[in-house]
Design goal:
alpha/beta; 2 domains; 6-stranded parallel beta sheet; 8 helices; 6 strands; 12% strand
């Protein structure tokens, strides 16, 4: 089975770390409360920061977050099991877009944990296009907009939903998961159908 996989918030716990530093930046640096939608995964939609504030956050915190991030709990065991079962993993990530060095840092995290995927797509804005091109059997992503778009285009999608983020209606093409055990169960169910 071809499994498309996002990195941030799926393989690497950076999204939780990002939200921590977003709060620190908003409260301590900006000295206020600019939170407008806690269900939004991206800081540009989560806060009403102006462009300069967004740039300051990117410059001051993106690499710090990347360096502090680790693998998602449970990922390594499920990944190793699925690789032994001959599943193919294709990374489809936006990482490397805002700050190019974040790609290198992701490679460092993967290398330090002896993780090697079958194929990599970095700095991708249109994940639908890559999923279709690669003919993935299932895509795992934590961004609700991406999960919604993929499922609406009949790509089986596992929406790795973190606490407080937008809840989507499940259907034939969309399932919500919250940990790697649930991901494993969904993949095995799909494999057996």
């Amino acid at each position: 089975m071809k499994i498309g996989i996002d990195l941030d918030g799926v393989v690497i716990d950076s999204e939780t770390t990002f939200r921590t530093y977003e709060e620190i930046f908003d409260i301590e640096v900006l000295q206020g409360n600019h939170l407008i939608d806690r269900e939004e995964p991206k800081f540009q939609n989560r806060y009403d920061w102006n462009k300069e504030q967004e740039e300051n956050f990117i410059n001051d915190f993106f690499m710090k977050v990347s360096r502090e991030s680790n693998l998602m709990s449970g990922f390594l065991g499920v990944f190793e099991l699925l690789k032994k079962q001959k599943h193919e993993f294709i990374v489809i990530t936006a990482r490397g877009g805002f700050i190019k060095e974040m790609k290198d840092d992701a490679i460092r995290i993967l290398k330090n944990n002896q993780i090697e995927f079958d194929k990599y797509y970095w700095n991708i804005n249109n994940k639908l296009e890559i999923c279709q091109k690669e003919n993935v059997d299932i895509m795992i992503d934590d961004d609700w907009r991406i999960a919604k778009t993929l499922s609406e285009n009949e790509i089986k999608t596992l929406y790795f939903r973190d606490t407080n983020l937008v809840k989507l209606q499940e259907n034939t093409y969309l399932k919500e998961v919250n940990n790697w055990g649930e991901i494993y169960r969904c993949i095995k169910e799909l494999e057996n159908n």
